[in-house]
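FORM 7B: Structural annotation worksheet

SECTION A. Query
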Amino acid sequence: MGRLIVISNRVSVPKAAGAAGAQGGLAVALNSALREHGGIWFGWSGQETEEFTGHLDMQRNDGVTTATIDLEPQDIEEYYNGYANRTLWPLFHYRIDLTEYDRNFGEGYERVNERFADSVLPLIESDDLVWVHDYHLLPLGSLLRRKGVKNRMGLFLHTPWPPTRLLVSLPLHERLVASMLEFDVIGFQNVEWLESFLHYVQKELGLTVNPDNSIDYQGRRVVARAFPIGIDYEEFVEAAGGAEARAAHDRLKQSVRGRKILIGVDRLDYSKGLGERFEAYGRFLADNPELAARAVLLQIAPPSREDVASYQQIREDLERKTGHINGAHADVAFVPIRYVNRGYPRDQLAGFYRAADIGLVTPLRDGMNLVAKEYVAAQDPEDPGVLILSQFAGAAHQMKDALLVNPHSIEHVSEAIKRALEMPLAERRERHARLLASVRENDVRRWREDFVEALFGPPVGPPAEPPAMPLPAKAGNPAEAENPAEAEKPTEAEKPAQDQTA
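SECTION B. Predicted structure
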């Protein structure tokens, strides 16, 4: 049985003893898999270098070997800030109105994926399994195949996968998806994203999808499945009962002076629906004056991707809405919204979740959203809070006993807040018990084991010879472009996050 080679945009180095709780659930799961199977976690260090050298920084911490490379400023701007976060991220979250198509972005994306392939290639032994993560590295399987890698390789997409009618707005979408089919296993967060992918490969690529959802492609059979990710349930429950969590719980409870607490914890990202959430809470305050002074919304929103203009606009918009709502409903001893632009360790977040009577998880579109699962795991089963969850979050497929809402409707969310605040204890207990059973059963270890088991599966037929790469684009002919984004931006466009992922 070979080792596991994990490849992601960023690498999470295991923490030293005593730093438990500082890592997200994904990092915990992948580090656990690497300890079990042996292997290496490879990716970008997060650091800049004046000139790319391909130097590998190899480290071993807590039984896990990591290998990282530095990238040039141009790489970071075009690959990460550009194609990954200004093209693919908005498109995959159904926001083609925010999607930017730029030739340089596509070139940078292809170049950095090539650099990843060249750098990780010497680390891969003949019987290793290769597990690639997320939208930053979709072409990596194809590039490794071109360099002679015949190992079993899998890709897991942590984001949604858009409907075909949106994906076809991406220049050279066919080439990008065809490169993904060089993987042996392609995993999605839920059946909705899986079905969107299968619809695309049938309609746009004309491929056969078998009854088991596998895809016949160039003499090979590609497995496509939903692998819903979960939290590290046991670890999180333990953290929620720890001293740091209890101190955070007590501090928050004391500060609100008997008021009900609503909590939201999200990266500062337009996909999270924070503006709509604030408007819905403002509507709740206006429509329910008898309840308005009895509730406080704590919104924790650490900044992300601050170099991208659309994220700067989100922050300005939320600050304006917070000021407007607080100005309309506050008094000298009370403000209805506490808006915090910083992150907190997971142990403290667990305490905040347990103190909160309502968990507001209302993204406009989300691959999974582990905050919903963490909120449920942190609750006191004897007196649990109520989860209000967007029907457009991947977690909604597993968490039917939450109050499911349409986050685009401020009235719907406002009414759900009122219902949650007035929900009888018996109903809260029943809903929470069913939600907790699902969170416990579908934890991150099950996700990891299911995917690795699929990756270990026997290949169907010999690996096909990968297709030759297209020739460089001719001037004025985007159909022959070298890179996935090497076409002019279309005249018509529709994007509407760790949980911190690597």
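SECTION C. Observations
The chain has a mean pLDDT of 88. Residues 366 and 393 are 5 Å apart (CA to CA).

SECTION D. Sign-off
Analyst initials: ____
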